[in-house]
Every structure is written in C-alpha cells, then in structure tokens.
Design brief:
This protein is α/β, with parallel strands linked by helices and 222 residues long. Helices cover 27% and strands 29% of the residues. The protein has one domain: Vaccinia Virus protein VP39 (Rossmann fold, 3-Layer(aba) Sandwich). Strand 1 and strand 2 form a beta hairpin. Helix 1 crosses helix 2.
C-alpha cells in the first residue's frame, strides 16, 4: 500500500496510508493526541515508581518516546512492551523528526536506539526505561496479569475491525493486572460494548483535538 509522510496540525509528522485514508496518528496533531490519550488519561493516573506498559501498535515509536520523556520527568521506572505486526521502515523513521518536534534534541539517541535494537529481546533504552518489541499479531499476546497500563493504538475499526473485537479485548483484559487501565483514542459504541462484554468498566472522556470523546477501560477484578 502507498504510504507517505504528512505534517499534522500541531506541526508534528505522521505516516499516512493513502489506500486506506488512514494515519498512524491524528491529522489534528500527532503529538497532541499522544499526550492527551496516553499520558494525560493513562500514565498520569499512576504514582507507582515501577510500571509495566503494553502498547498495541508500536508503529512509529512516538508513544514510547513520549513515555520515556515523561518517565524521566516523573521519576518512573518503566518496562515497555510494544507489539507491531508490520514495523515501520528506517527511511520513514528518518523523516519523522520527533525529537525536534518535542524540543528535546537529546531524545534522538533514544528514538534511534528504540528502532535499532533487536526484536523479541529486552533492551535498556535509558536508565529508567526498558523496551521489548514483539513482531506479531495482537491476538498472539499470551501475557497474564503482567501490565499496569495498555496503550491501545491500533489502526481504526473502519479499516481493521478485527482488531476491535471481544476476542482482542479479552486478551487485553487477561494481560492487565487488577486495577490496570487501557486507554484508546477510539470512542465507537461497538468498541465500548466489546470492552464491557469482557469485564472492563468503561468511561467516556473528552477526546484529543479533532475528536469529541475517547475511551478508558479499567480491570476492576482479577
């Protein structure tokens, strides 16, 4: 499928899949969306020093990079697992310039390291941030009661409805610890109902720029 780098409304870049008219991040602002959905309404809920995070759709690595930056600010020690079936190629990554967009030039070394490290192995990216990248289908995740927080950042249900089903959210539910949290940019009614069907308590929250709402789901029982 044809892909190109585009600039979003906040000046940060993302990848557009032209055949789907779908982007890796919101055209209303890639960085703004990441901060609103995954940091403000996800990471910010946790005061624990040590956190385990699962990202569904590692993609460009933007969410991981911002989480690393926030972990340094907040004094957190984070173990991060990113699952991605189709890794972004180096030629695309070189054009994204996320460290510059975040006005944190020292992040570039971490961004490069995230993408150059081998898959399926745990790597120390920074003193307080470790990463394992898993190249697989989301439905192959077998972790049980491991994660405190899930960033669910798959392509939208319009183009990949099979990733937003009860089957997938049951896997997410099992992988979370009790009181674990899943956040996503999606606010579709079918997505909310699928989450509720597998046991999540789900709340609608104000969405990032360009979206009225988003969803946050909590695993309230073991």
């Amino acid at each position: 499928m044809k892909r190109k780098i585009i600039t979003t409304a906040d000046g940060s870049k993302t990848i557009q899949i032209e055949d789907w008219n779908e982007q890796y991040h919101s055209t209303h602002g890639a960085i703004q969306e990441a901060y609103h959905v995954f940091i403000k309404n996800g990471l910010s809920l946790f005061d624990d020093r040590q956190l385990s995070i699962l990202e569904i759709g590692f993609g460009t690595g933007l969410n991981a990079l911002i989480t690393l930056l926030e972990s340094e600010k907040r004094g957190l020690d984070i173990s991060y697992k990113g699952v991605e079936a189709y890794p972004v190629v180096p030629e695309e990554l070189e054009q994204l310039e996320y460290a510059e967009a975040l006005e944190a030039g020292d992040l570039e070394q971490y961004f490069i390291k995230m993408h150059q490290t081998s898959w399926e192995e745990l790597h120390a990216i920074a003193t307080n941030f470790s990463l394992i990248k898993q190249q697989s289908d989301f439905r192959e995740i077998a972790d049980i009661n491991v994660f405190d927080l899930i960033y669910f950042d798959a392509f939208g249900a319009r183009v990949q409805p099979e990733l937003w089903t009860e089957e997938v959210f049951a896997i997410m539910y099992r992988s979370l610890k009790k009181d674990g949290v899943l956040v996503t940019y999606s606010a579709k009614g079918s997505v909310r109902r699928a989450m509720q069907a597998v046991g999540f308590v789900v709340e609608r929250l104000p969405g990032p720029p360009g979206k009225r709402e988003m969803l946050r789901a909590i695993k309230v029982s073991q």
